[in-house]
Specification:
coenzyme a biosynthesis, P-loop_NTPase, Rossmann fold, dephospho-CoA kinase activity, single chain, nucleotide-binding, 2 domains, 202 residues
């Protein structure tokens, strides 16, 4: 029977570091960010719903979503951000479930569901366990400013558009501290795999 692990964190806390580790070890990873892009491709119902709500000018003349314009709207307006999440919640859930079922049918022992907004989307009951990749909020702010070349105000706005990393850590089954080096994070993840007897498939 497949074990389904929900992997999440906050913006710039290092979730992608963990996701890449699991991929390198040969475990299937279902990436919700990729799914979110797929459901707003031209011709998909998700894009039609976004266009219907936000207007025709949210889409380029060639029918592709103007992500920069949409991002500008939702980061400045929490109610519009929540509306976007509402519009795309079910299409993304359907995409995630389709990918998960595909890997279950293939007989994989451990399947990683990489979902940045796992708690915000109330998906906790979809997974056997939830792992949060954690750093302190101070370090999170510093890393986000450096990564995206943002000032402290803009970086803080992006952080507060999500549930706080402290709250997520309190809700997790497992917490991985990503405050140190990549190697230290990998060691914690490898130890987790070892404790539960999951053998790398690479």
């Amino acid at each position: 029977m497949s074990h389904i692990l929900g992997l999440t964190g906050g913006i710039a806390t290092g979730k992608s570091t963990a996701s890449k580790f699991f991929k390198q070890e040969g475990f299937p990873v279902v990436d919700a960010d990729y799914g979110a892009r797929m459901v707003v491709e031209p011709g998909e119902p998700g894009l039609a719903a976004v266009k219907a709500y936000f207007g025709d000018d949210i889409v380029f003349p060639n029918g592709v979503l103007d992500r920069k314009k949409l991002g500008g709207i939702i980061f400045e307006n929490p109610s519009e951000r929540e509306k976007l999440n509402e519009l795309l919640r079910q299409p993304i859930r359907d995409w995630l479930n389709k990918e998960k079922e595909k890997y279950i049918a293939e007989g994989h022992e451990l399947i990683i569901m990489d979902v940045p907004l796992l708690f915000e989307s109330k998906l906790e009951d979809q997974y056997d366990d939830i792992m949060v990749i954690y750093v302190s909020e101070t370090l999170q702010l510093d890393r986000l400013m450096a990564r995206d070349n943002l000032n402290s105000v803009d970086a803080f706005k992006r952080m507060t558009s999500q549930m706080s990393i402290e709250r997520k850590a309190n809700m997790a089954d497992f917490v991985i501290d990503n405050s140190g080096s990549v190697e230290e994070t990998h060691q914690q993840l490898a130890a987790w795999l070892g404790i539960f007897g999951y053998q790398p498939l690479k």
